[in-house]
Amino acid sequence: MNTIVIIRYGELSLKSPGVRNFFERTLVNNLKAMLDQQAVSYNEVIRDRGRIFVESDNPAAAKVCANVFGVVSTSFARKVDPNLKSAAEECAATAGEFIAESESFAIRPRRSGNHSFTSTDLGRSCGDAVYEKLESLGRNPSVNLDDPDKEIFVEMRQNAAYVFTGISKGVGGLPVGTQGKMVVLLSGGIDSPVAAWLLMRRGVKVIPVFCNNAPFSDEA
To answer: Other C-beta atoms within 10 Å of 112: how many?
Structure first.
């Protein structure tokens, strides 16, 4: 499968190896549960060096995963071989579908692992390929690194490269189930659901309890 969802997380990376492993496993289980609940198909969920990858051909998977506590951001990406040529070709193909006539663009490269090239080399190679592609289509391209109309992101890792055009902001926090359980009394007002949401964002598994006080209390 050449499409994948990149899952990024924040606080988990600061934990000790043992705690981090537990948090990541919990997050993977929560991601699978959310995808199953929303009937979004996927093949596998993989942990790899500070990232979680969901193999799926459904772009909706990125937004679904962004709603899981513990996720900082997601991207629906195309996966290619980890070399300059493959990354540049995929960036050019993406640009042909993504960048319109006279729109400016920027390449946002990122590299991790051992490679014979730098992030600057990666950005230059992909930028040249995109420019040539757009020029061949007669779209009058221009590069603007400060305030571009469109951005193409390319993330080069040890075993694969990923090309994508957008980042969906996640809810952040910690994976639910990593900080025990708490009972939350839902009184009918807005305060208690907000409190429950904030607890869940800090990794607490909430057990909601609702007490119907009508007609002795006002309706929320």
So the answer is: 13
